[in-house]
């Protein structure tokens, strides 16, 4: 199998980065289509338009309606075409960015992504998640290329809610362990090839950065400021984890996350919160060393990621075991990345690993 690494062409990060967006946009387009939801537009719309003007890039701004659906993509695409824009800029959270990727792809023009959160590793990827107009999961859209530019303004990211920043660390926590499992199983990654030593090294750096900087960064974000630790975590949550999951592989942690989405009780959780618990469960499945498990548990407890079922919103009830079995079955469905583990995984094993994780988490907390 060939090795494949894919990534955005340019990744730009730092405090005040948005006030330079015009300079980087100018390199690829003279007239751009900018989308953001109402809140983000009022927060940073002026910064972006001033920077574009400063670099003589003309623009058309449009408000995103809040759902990454086929009809919204069609509506925005039509406006883009009638304005003859040469590139798209998406500003905001996951749904806005996914919509921006989709409309740029429809028109075969470059895309610039500027996330206002570091809550997942999706921004750098060649992937969008499509929803129905009512907000139910519809399908994935996969693109032949990653975004042309990903620009993270850390002074904006540091002001976002702490829980979202921590959730980003939960998503990034899985990256190395899933990459390690996927690569030892010799399974293809999302990039469509084998894991390279480069991607594996980035995934490992992602984990090491979280352990070294995560807690310090969380405290700084609680104070509403960006420090060097915050800078390093934003890079780990977004770039290292993004390249890691796409080019080094996914395995059990994300499949177990997907399993938990079948339970109503877990709908209030962020992606990265469920992924963190899925990571611990993957380590139990692999019978990872006590040393490694303790390091991951310590990290989760320090930054505030869930380590027990109760923290996931699941209380002890008659039906609890039945619900965990539902999660286990869903996480082992045919298309799931759990089958990238280096051994065959059954729902019974996942069920046992989830309950063992919960017990270990309780023991760690109390
Ligand atoms: Zn993820």
UniProtKB/TrEMBL annotation:
Glycerol binds at residues 121, 171, 254, 271. It catalyses: glycerol + NAD(+) = dihydroxyacetone + NADH + H(+). Pfam families: Fe-ADH (PF00465). It comes from the Bacteria. NAD(+) binds at residues 37, 94-98, 116-119, 125, 127, 131. Signal peptide: none annotated. One of its GO terms (cellular component) is cytosol. Pathway: Polyol metabolism; glycerol fermentation; glycerone phosphate from glycerol (oxidative route): step 1/2. SUPFAM superfamilies: Dehydroquinate synthase-like. GO terms for molecular function: glycerol dehydrogenase (NAD+) activity; metal ion binding. This is Glycerol dehydrogenase. It comes from Xenorhabdus koppenhoeferi.
